[in-house]
Amino acid sequence: MRKIRSETQKGLQTCKYCVQCSAWYPLTEFYIDRAKADGLRPYCKVCDIAKAKRAV
Question: What is the pTM for the complete model shown?
Fold first, then answer.
């Protein structure tokens, strides 16, 4: 069964699931990525920063 990656309220997306830390966050906690279907990165800002630091 496929895991739902966003929660909606009256047809508008309000929260998103971070695939790294497995938690739900408001959309403001994700960086913009226009290449993605929902326009947001798959990781929350905290996980995205930590991932970038590990890559250096």
Answer: 0.76
In a domain, 32, yes or no: yes
The answer, yes or no, to whether residue 3 has pLDDT greater than 90, is no
Q: Which residue range(s) make up the domain with 19?
A: 6-55
Q: Please identify which residue in the block is written with the tokens 């309220």.
A: 9
CB 43 within 8 A of CB 53: no
Average pLDDT over residues 5-27: 82
Which tokens in the block code for residue 56? Answer: 């250096």
User: Cβ of 56: how many Cβ atoms within 10 Å?
Assistant: 4
